[in-house]
Design goal:
262 residues, mainly alpha, 2 strands
């Protein structure tokens, strides 16, 4: 949007400069013609009633016309520099347009070269082949032959790049990168699955450890609780307490003899 506005503004400014250039030239020629004609009495000097205070200024019209003529002739000395600037601007604009056309033609030829459409190897034949292709192209029919020739030579100069970055090689590289990306995606998915399995196993192991620890604590409690409840019965450490053990009486010798027949 702004580029179009600036383009229109540039065209309008160029028109104003051209109009001002012509107006200065016409004005200088007109005032010089009037001054010369009045000097040779071909017509009278213009009359202008001027006064400085109460003092009238005689021949004010003549001096005014001569001053305007001198000023317009002085302005003419600035016109050559302005003309050179305008010529430079026009040539720059034409150069920019020409470069755009050359670039567009070069891109078309280079794209065709990347597609391996040009087969000739010698420089003259290769440039001629590219030039013929650009001339037959429907989008480049309005370009000058010199621009097409430059674009064809540029395309031939970059033929090595066209071979390196040919459409076939670029397609193969993209296919290879796409396959590598798919392999990386699959590998990442497998890693994520394995990580999920490991986390699941870690959770089971932690759950089993907790269950085993709880079982050990329950077993220790079951072992300790009876000894705390009835220590006289369930205590196994040390000799039995005398208060709960009744001693047996010693047998006599007569009983032993009667029992064993002695």
């Amino acid at each position: 949007m702004f580029k179009g506005f600036y383009a229109v503004l540039g065209v309008f400014a160029a028109f104003i400069r051209s109009f001002a250039f012509g107006a200065v030239v016409v004005f200088a020629l007109g005032t010089a013609t009037l001054s010369l004609g009045a000097s040779f009495n071909l017509w009278s000097w213009p009359t202008l009633a001027l006064a400085w205070g109460d003092t009238p200024l005689p021949n004010a019209g003549m001096w005014a016309l001569l001053g305007v003529t001198a000023l317009s002739i002085a302005l003419l000395f600035y016109l050559p520099a302005n003309a050179r600037m305008m010529a430079l601007e026009l040539s720059h604009r034409r150069f920019e347009l020409s470069m755009r056309d050359i670039t567009r033609a070069y891109h078309i030829a280079h794209a065709e070269d990347r597609a391996s459409a040009f087969r000739l190897s010698s420089e003259f034949e290769a440039v001629k082949e590219r030039l013929a292709f650009l001339r037959r192209h429907p989008d480049l029919g309005s370009l000058e032959p010199e621009l097409l020739d430059i674009a064809a030579k540029m395309s031939f100069a970059s033929r090595d790049l066209a071979k390196i970055y040919s459409d076939e090689r670029v397609a193969r590289a993209r296919t290879f990168l796409r396959q590598r990306q798919e392999e990386i995606d699959n590998f990442t998915a497998r890693i994520q699955d394995a990580r999920a399995v490991v986390e699941d196993l870690r959770g089971h192991i932690q759950e089993l450890d907790l269950t085993e620890s709880q079982g050990q604590r329950d077993l220790a409690r079951l072992r300790a609780d009876p000894a705390q409840l009835i220590p006289e019965v369930f205590t196994t450490d040390g000799p039995p307490s005398p208060s709960i053990v009744t001693p047996l009486r010693k047998r006599s010798d007569a009983i032993d003899k009667s029992l064993f027949g002695e």
